[in-house]
Amino acid sequence: MLSLQHISKYYQVGGNKNYVINDISLDVDQGEFVSIMGPSGSGKSTLLNIIGMLDEPSTGFHYFADQAVHQLKEKQRSALYKQYIGFVFQAYHLIDELTVYENIETPLIYQDVKGSERKAMVADMLDRFNIVGKKDLFPAQLSGGQQQLVGIARALIAKPKLILADEPTGNLNSKQGEEIMELFRKLNKEDGVTIIQVTHSEKNAEYGSRIINLLDGRVESSKKF
User: Fold this and answer.
1) What are the Cα distances from residue 164, in Å, to 34, 62, 112, 143, 182?
2) CA pair distance 23, 72, nearest whole angstrom
3) How many domains does the chain have?
4) Residue 194 in contact with residue 161, Cβ under 8 Å?
5) Between 153 and which of 34, 51, 69, 125 could a Cys-Cys bridge form, CB atoms 3.0 to 4.6 Å apart?
6) Quick check: 198 and 45 in contact, CB under 8 A?
7) Does residue 176 carry a pLDDT above 90?
8) How far apart are CA 5 and CA 27, in angstroms?
9) In this protein, which residues make up the domain named ABC transporter (predicted)?
10) 145-174 pLDDT, tens per residue?
11) Secondary structure of 82-126 in HEC code, one letter for each residue
12) If you average pLDDT over every residue of the chain, what do you get?
């Protein structure tokens, strides 16, 4: 599904290259659940953003769904990730001016899904996450756990093949965090959704079928379960 070959990301500082990611090669199969760990500054979020095509590597080759991403124009990359990838962020990234319903609906508008179909799909998501009663509220009126559920519902509504989650339980209490991780496990096992998460939590990492440890922009270790 995904193959990174000798990916590096660096910034030119004076005459020196400051590497955020240094020569990472990584293959992820359809249906895997991969956890990426490492200390702050090890390149975890940058790697996730490159996988999700939100950022471009300085060097290397990136293949996703049989496409050579490194050869695509920005518009083509954007179309590819909107079709296949759902993002879940620690900071939720909900749109403050939109209601819960409208936030969840947004990806479908980008994909030109017809109005009646959008209505049915959003209703299904609201029901699935038990947030029907919150549909007309704005993000500021929700708890952190509820906002994260809305973020996940929005990520899932377009039926992505891959979910990228950056510290998805970082702002939640332990019970809410556990519920989110169980939801990811269910999506992975029952729906076959491929998940790549960045996490500081050993406990959350163990939900994955593989743990990759980064250090100073390189893969320090990779362990399958």
Assistant:
1) 10, 16, 23, 22, 16
2) 21
3) 1
4) yes
5) 125
6) yes
7) no
8) 8
9) 2-225
10) 889 889 989 988 988 999 999 988 887 788
11) HHHEEEEECCCCCCCCCCHHHHHHHHHHHCCCCHHHHHHHHHHHH
12) 92
Residue count of the chain: 225
* 164-200 per-residue burial string, b: 16 or more CB within 10 A, e: under 16: bbbbbbbbbeeebbeebbebbeebbeeeebbbbbbbe
Range of the domain at 26: 2-224
Q: What is the CATH number of the domain that holds 213?
A: 3.40.50.300
Cα(55)–Cα(44) distance, rounded to whole angstroms?
13
Contact 209, 31 (CB under 8 A): no
Per-residue model confidence as pLDDT tens digits over 35-82 = 999 999 999 999 999 999 999 999 999 999 989 999 999 999 988 988
Give the Cα separation of 151 and 168 in Å (integer). 10
